[in-house]
Amino acid sequence: MKHLLILGAGTAGTMMANHLRHNLKEDDWEISIIDEKEEHHYQPGYLFLPFDIYQPEDIVKSIAEFIPKGVSLIKNKIERIIPAENKVAMKTGEMLEYDVLIIATGAKIAPEETTGMQGAEWQKSVFDFYTFEGSLALRNKLREWQGGKLVIHITEMPIKCPVAPLEFAFLADSYFKHKHMRDKVDITFVTPLSGAFTKPKATAALDHLLQEKNIHIVSDFAIEQVDNDNKKIIDYGGQEVPFDLLVTVPTNKGDALMERSGLGDDLNYVPTNKATLQSKDYENIFVLGDASNVPASKAGSVAHFEAEILTENILLYIGGQPLKAEFDGHANCFIETGNGKALLIDFNYTHEPVEGTFPFPGVGPLRLLKESRMNHMGKLAFRWIYWNVLLKGTHIPFVSANMQEAGKHF
Amino acid sequence: MEKLIAGTTVTVNEEGYLTNFAQWNEAVGEALAAEANVVLTPRHWQVINYLQLQHKSNLPLSIRQIGKSNVVDIKEFYQLFPNGPLKISTKIAGIPKPASCL
Ligand SMILES: Cc1cc2nc3c(=O)[nH]c(=O)nc-3n(C[C@H](O)[C@H](O)[C@H](O)COP(=O)(O)OP(=O)(O)OC[C@H]3O[C@@H](n4cnc5c(N)ncnc54)[C@H](O)[C@@H]3O)c2cc1C
Question: Which PANTHER family match (chain A) (predicted)?
Fold first, then answer.
């Protein structure tokens, strides 16, 4: 009996457990998955929680509910991977041996990387919305906030769901309009990038929306510290942005387990072949989701496309066949723009997001890089799809793992 | 597109970055620096040489990684190339603008 071990039972690990249990004979392969938590969070919901659009119960379910029969779920903290011995050590001291290892331990925020970020004002006037606790604390703050300078800030790239901070700015604009206090709130978006986004065509569209919604943008801002006493953020060039309420996205990093195991880069991401998803250093280790260093978006949709391709590759690897270099970096993200509308972007390693129709070329019904109500319905439907389709590893009809070029205006 | 700079014809992209490092020389670097309103000192050159070396070895460039390079800390990097040091210094060095990951 051989053993396939999955580290992390979040979006990517859960999808792999479902795909692989389906494809590997129970008589030949034992499959186990480890996570230190008991709850599975729908992280895209952290964006909506602060604005009272979703409630906590909409976004939290148990991990066990999504792990298929025939896969053993182990609740434990992973201490170290020992690749030379094909072993994983757990916090409690036990060792697990594996034949094939899948790393899906995700990424998390590291506010301690920035001086003063977790200072006296942390969760008083300085918040994050990339954790459940942060997002909930921010909701409570927003419910009673009287207005002032709202600063939405990205510390450094890469971050999970790179459009989420922009969406936060758009939703904040609409939230304060509905509360009839938009005139009391000054919104500024501060980014280390040179514009609203990383890709030129999408940046142009998004810069335009920021302007239309009267959201100021400060670009090329590399934060040095949060000054808690004077309530401002200061960058290495000496530039200062004052705030009454700071909503920041701290540095994102892979789990510290990678550092302990000597497997990560300087942000604890695992060096991974961007087309096959095999680890660069060990042929029986594969990596997907936010934990890898591939230059694709850190998004659930990306993990979904990766999972389809990685399943094939693991079956090939087990069968002693060459891997397929198929993953193209495909990402597909809805961008909430407020007032019940959203944009949709679809792109990969080589093609930036452009206008067009999705998923049916020329037909839609979704429109790329254009605001519409239909796209907003798509974003809300994503939560249902996530719990009921994505995690179970079911293929989404009409949406291929590789990006389609038809129907797009390059 | 082609551009005549410091007596040399070089190929650049829409953002003005050299697309072929072989066309770079110190005079081109000086001229690109002048366009960006940077006066190059020996400290600037140390950083530029470091960036070129990283690029030749196919190593990724980021502000974080330069801060850990022991060549320059982030604060000084900003003093040398104000307002977006990474994009300005790489342009002068004749290497591609680092892709900020998505
Ligand atoms: C605010 C926000 C908005 C987002 N919006 C979108 C969106 O609109 N669309 C989209 O596609 N994506 C979105 N995302 C991104 C998406 O949630 C992630 O990309 C996705 O969850 C990544 O899956 P993963 O399995 O790699 O990591 P995760 O789902 O984070 O899972 C990692 C798991 O590993 C476990 N783990 C880690 N280390 C250890 C250890 N040492 N021991 C034991 N267990 C460990 C963790 O407990 C966790 O359960 C958003 C993310 C955020 C934060």
Answer: FAD-DEPENDENT PYRIDINE NUCLEOTIDE-DISULPHIDE OXIDOREDUCTASE (PTHR43755:SF1), PTHR43755
Name beta bridge partners: A335: A343
* Ligand 1 mutation target, pool A19, A35, A248, most atoms within 8 A of CB: A35
Q: Give the three-class secondary structure for A124.
A: coil
- pLDDT at position A396: 84
Share above pLDDT 70 across residues of chain B, in percent, rounded to a whole number: 96
φ, ψ for residue A216 (rounded to 5)? -80, 150
The residues of B annotated with a catalytic role in the active site are 101
Q: Domain boundary residue among A232, A251, A270?
A: A251
Question: Which of A34, A41, A43 to probe ligand 1 with, by most ligand atoms within 8 A of CB?
Answer: A43
Determine the average pLDDT of the residues in B23-50: 96
Amino acid letter, residue A151: V
Assign residue A185 the CATH number of its domain. 3.50.50.60
Cβ of A15 less than 6 Å from ligand 1: no
Query: pTM for the full model?
Result: 0.94
Contact A321, A170 (CB under 8 A): no
pLDDT tens per residue, range B81-98: 988 899 999 999 999 988
A196 part of a folded domain: yes
A326 domain-assigned: no
The domain segmentation of chain B, as residue ranges, is: 2-93
Q: Tens digit of pLDDT for each residue in A263-275?
A: 999 899 999 999 9
Within-domain flag for A324: no
Q: Is a pLDDT exceeding 90 seen at residue B64?
A: no
CA of B45 from ligand 1 middle (Å) equals 42
Q: Compute the distance between CA of residue A124 and CA of residue A244 in angstroms, rounded to an integer.
A: 10
Q: Please give the Cα distance from B55 to B53 (Å, whole number).
A: 5
Residues of chain A with pLDDT under 70: none
DSSP tag of A291? G
Q: At what angle do helices B26-35 and B85-93 cross, to 10 degrees?
A: 140
Q: How many CA atoms lie within 13 A of A242 on its CB side?
A: 6
For residues A151 and A141, state if they share a domain. yes
Is A194 inside a domain boundary? yes
CA distance A139 to A305: 32
- Residue B35 has a pLDDT of 95
